[in-house]
Write a structure and sequence with these properties.
The structure holds 2 protein chains of 2 kinds. Chain A is mainly alpha-helical. Chain A is built from 8 helices and no strands. The relative contact order of chain A is 0.13. Chain B is mainly alpha-helical. Chain B has 5 helices and no strands. In chain B, helix 3 (27-39) packs across helix 4 (41-61). The model of chain B has no long low-confidence stretch (mean pLDDT 87). The chains are: A mainly alpha, B mainly alpha. The A-B interface holds A 9-10, 13-14, 17-18, 21-22, 25-26, 31, 35, 38-39, 42-43, 46-47, 49, 91-92, 94-95, 98, 105-106, 108-112, 114-116, 118-120, 123-124, 127, 139, 142-143, 148, 163, 166-167, 170, 173-174, 177 and B 14, 18-19, 22, 24, 45-46, 48-50, 52-58, 60-67, 70-71, 73-75, 77-79, 81-82, 86-87.
Chain lengths: 195, 87
């Protein structure tokens, strides 16, 4: 049986470029920075392509380089303050709050009304409030149908870490979504509601 | 022998919520949760809401298009690096 020739870097990169740009845009919140990040990662990946094992997961391999570039860039910038008020968010936070506010919690797509009122930019703003380690995992999770194993490979961490960060990150995101909704007047704060 | 989850084991079902929504549970456990959701309206509402939030966030975040010339620019950079031997 004839072996397929190994794919060249450009064709493999072309297959992940769109998603890579999406991840970069959500991490950097800025189109120009996202383009720079993808370009920097692509050139680094090209130079390191000899270390890529043909037949293995190029997507996870490339996203590892992309996230490393992002973390490296972040380290060079001034650290953001940690958004600690998202810690210890109770389970089902958005569900409970939505019910309090009269948003539907039943039906085929009960959160759609709230999320549609929020719109993409506010959902992006909510993600941006997560501490870095949760934000990066959540971004990889939401932007591409990566398995926990692929996310772990991209971030060089154990699968259990991905699982726990996703669990906590989802809870934090629910509170962040609610905060953004409240700040934009989509919902109003109820005195005495659980924080 | 395992027993189907029932109204008294909502807590057990809830502990598996994330793994269930991400289809990370072994198939027998997935079925147990599905059976529980069929008989427990409260859990079914919570699970559906959580799934709806995840899907909604996913859809919103994915509303992005790569600039049409970005791939061309990067490919040109790579080809230039290949020619100069810096790859």
């Amino acid at each position: 049986m004839a072996l397929c020739p190994p794919a060249d870097f450009e064709s493999l990169f072309a297959g992940v470029a769109g998603t890579a740009f999406g991840i970069a845009a959500r991490l950097t919140h800025n189109q120009a920075d996202a383009e720079d990040l993808v370009q920097e990662a692509a050139l680094l990946a090209f130079r390191a392509f000899a270390s890529f094992e043909p037949g293995t997961n190029f997507r996870a391999w490339f996203f590892k380089i992309l996230t490393n570039c992002y973390f490296s860039k972040r380290r060079r910038e001034k650290s953001r303050p940690v958004t600690s008020d998202l810690d210890d968010t109770p389970d089902l936070y958005l569900y409970a709050r939505s019910a309090e506010m009269g948003f539907p919690t039943q039906g085929p797509d009960p959160a759609a009304q709230l999320l549609d009122q929020l719109g993409t930019e506010r959902v992006v703003a909510a993600i941006a409030r997560l501490p870095d380690e949760y934000r990066v995992v959540a971004t990889l999770y939401f932007m591409e149908d990566l398995s926990y194993e692929e996310i772990a490979q991209a971030l060089s961490c154990p699968v259990g870490t991905v699982r726990s960060r996703l669990h906590r990150g989802r809870k934090m995101l629910q509170k962040a979504l609610y905060q953004v909704a409240e700040e934009s007047g989509i919902v109003t704060h109820h005195a005495g509601a659980a924080e | 022998m395992t027993h189907p989850l029932n109204r008294t084991t909502c807590e057990e079902a809830f502990r598996r919520l994330d793994d269930f929504l991400d289809r990370r549970l072994p198939e027998p456990e997935m079925r147990l949760i599905e059976e529980h959701l069929e008989i427990c309206a409260a859990c079914a509402r919570e699970f559906t809401f959580e799934a709806s939030v995840l899907n909604g966030v996913r859809q919103k975040l994915r509303q992005l298009t790569m600039p049409p010339d970005l791939l061309t620019r990067i490919t040109a950079e790579i080809q230039a690096a290949r020619k100069t031997g810096s790859g």
